[in-house]
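Severity: low
Component: inverse-folding endpoint
Summary: output formatting inconsistent between runs
Steps to reproduce: submit the following structure tokens with default settings.
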């Protein structure tokens, strides 16, 4: 986490800005085992805080909660200029597999993609395109301009998979791939997602792919 003292604006994902970081926002250790989540108080869409203050809050939680037993994590509320931000440190166990060195797209392009993904906890049905039961047709994909990075959500059996779940857990898994793989110049994927562990999310270099228009969402 950065130690900058200049305040950064955090705002509800998908709402009009201006803000610099979309909520929820997650920092993750490179081994994927420790997650630091920033969220906002219900009814307040945005607030500002210096990254160094988030770092201090994280260290405080680690000292008081994580280093004790059992270490289930901890939460601090009332952060930010308007006291509208909360920070939570939690253990995380992603199932991530990275590709070989040099296989991935530029990290910043994938950071932009992850920041634009849905991340709510509304229940969804993920299923094949054309099936009326599916609220999210598979495969689902989103690309940056120039197709340098794309995120793809699909099933273990493409074209046949049905599963239920929410976007928050899929976004969290994509975030893990970004921290653990694309920051190191590798493609990567996370598996065992969804209520029945039938879903996967992948971050990869999409140049040459015809799955979607530049910068658009597609389901094929």
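Observed output (run 2 of 3):
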């Amino acid at each position: 986490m950065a130690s900058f003292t200049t305040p950064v604006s955090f705002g509800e994902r998908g709402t009009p800005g201006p803000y610099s970081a979309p909520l929820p926002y997650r920092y993750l250790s490179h081994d994927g085992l420790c997650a630091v989540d920033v969220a906002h108080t219900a009814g307040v869409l945005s607030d500002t805080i210096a990254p160094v203050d988030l770092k201090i809050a994280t260290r405080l939680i680690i000292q008081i909660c994580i280093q004790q037993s059992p270490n289930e994590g901890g939460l601090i509320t009332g952060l930010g200029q308007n006291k509208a931000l909360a920070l939570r440190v939690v253990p995380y166990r992603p199932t991530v597999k990275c590709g070989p060195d040099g296989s991935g797209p530029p990290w910043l392009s994938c950071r932009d993609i992850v920041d634009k993904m849905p991340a709510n906890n509304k229940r969804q049905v993920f299923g094949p395109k054309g099936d009326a039961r599916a609220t999210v047709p598979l495969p689902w994909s989103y690309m940056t301009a120039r197709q340098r990075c794309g995120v793809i959500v699909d099933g273990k059996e493409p074209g046949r998979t049905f599963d239920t779940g929410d976007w928050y857990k899929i976004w969290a898994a994509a975030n893990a791939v970004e921290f653990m793989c694309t920051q190191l110049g590798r493609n990567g994927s996370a598996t065992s997602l969804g209520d029945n562990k039938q879903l996967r999310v992948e971050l990869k270099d999409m140049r040459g792919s015809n799955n979607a228009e530049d910068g658009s969402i597609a389901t094929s």
